[in-house]
Every structure is written in C-alpha cells, then in structure tokens.
Amino acid sequence: MEKYLRQLISIEFEDKKDIFTGFLIDWTEEWILLKNNPVDFIIDGFTILKNKNVKAIIQDKDHEFTEKVIKLKGLKTSAEEIIPLTDLASIISFLSRKYEIFQIAKKSDKAVYLGKLIELNEDELIMDFLGPEGDFEGEMGFKHNKIRVIEFDTDYINSLKLIVEEQK
C-alpha cells in the first residue's frame, strides 16, 4: 500500500460489486482511507473501507490522467487532519465529534444508511437514521462486523446537514 500513498487508485473487492476510487490517504491492517473520486475529475468527501477481501488495487493510465487533471485543478487530495483508523470505535467517535453526520454501508450495496451516532457499544453501532428529506427517522442498529464502508464530508451528506440545520 505504501507505494500508492497520495495516489489515485481503485479498490476492487472479492465479495462486493462496487469499485471504490480515490486518493489513498492512510491505511491500517483493518481500514483504508480514501479521498473519494466518485466520477470524472471530481473530489467528494472521504471513504473508509474495511480492509477485507480486497481483490485488486488498480492504477492504470486512466488513473494517472485523472490524477493529473485533479491536481492541475488545485483540488485537495489529502485530509486536513489525522483520522484515527485504529478501530471502528475510534473512527465513529472522531466522525461523530468532527462531522456529526456520516454514512455507512454493509457488504450488500443495496442500501446506505445516513445518520448521527446515538450509541456505540461493544457489539453495535446505533444511529439516528437521516432520511432523504433531511428528517431524523429513528434508531437503527448495526453489528460492528457488518459495517464495510463509512463515508463522510460528501456533497450529499453536507447538503442534508444544511436542511437539518435550517429545520432547527
């Protein structure tokens, strides 16, 4: 992973259809932090991936070209501060404090879950689910071992945060 640090890569998983593309910011044995490149020459938030069942790390001529354009545009491809990737509790606690609202996904790519932390215990993350209209809709629980993707500071999440703030 060291050779990919601060470079644009795509990560493919054996057991997930999604391919995640972004600038590698940090990694541990358990987690990978990317500055998200969802499409074309755009940077949009961060993605933390469970470092499990990685099939391939891709970096080809298209990645090099996209990386060059993004850098020429002057877009920031790093994190402003260290995001702790030691374990799920550290990650969630940091995100809850710094960003308040974040999004998680399980292995299945059928749904993502957006919200804010209610409780984090040994077995489960409990969050107040934020619906697509910007209303908190109640508690949802997720077993730690089922959480595979965590996203934060994206345009979508920040847009819903504006609605939440306006409704206060």
Commentary on this structure:
With 168 residues, this protein is an alpha+beta fold. The chain folds into two domains: 1-83, SH3 type barrels (Roll), CATH 2.30.30; 87-168, SH3 type barrels, CATH 2.30.30.100. 21% of the residues lie in helices and 40% in strands. The protein is built from three helices and ten strands; from the N terminus they run βββββααβββββα. It has helices at 61-72, 88-98, 155-167, and strands at residues 8-13, 19-27, 31-36, 46-50, 54-58, 101-106, 112-120, 124-130, 136-143, 147-152. A ten-stranded antiparallel β-sheet has the order 5-1-2-3-4-10-6-7-8-9. A hairpin with a 3-residue loop joins strand 2 and strand 3 (31-36). The radius of gyration is 16 Å and the shape is globular. The N and C termini lie far apart (43 Å).
What attributes does this structure have?
single chain; 168 residues; alpha+beta; SH3 type barrels
**How are the strands of the largest sheet arranged?**
5-1-2-3-4-10-6-7-8-9
Amino- and carboxy-terminal Cα gap: 43 Å
At the first level of CATH, the class of the largest domain is: Mainly Beta
Which percent range fits the helix content? 10-25%
Contiguous helical run count:
3
Shape: globular
Which architecture of the largest domain per CATH? Roll
| Oligomeric description of these chains | single chain
The topology string of helices and strands comes to EEEEEHHEEEEEH
Portion in strands:
35-45%
Average pLDDT: 94
* Overall radius of gyration: 16 Å
Q: Summarize the main sheet.
A: 10 strands, antiparallel
Estimate nothing, just give the exact number of structural domains.
Answer: 2
* Uncertain stretches of 5 or more adjacent residues: none
Number of strands: 10
- CATH topology group of the largest domain: SH3 type barrels
Q: Helices and strands: which structural class? A: alpha+beta
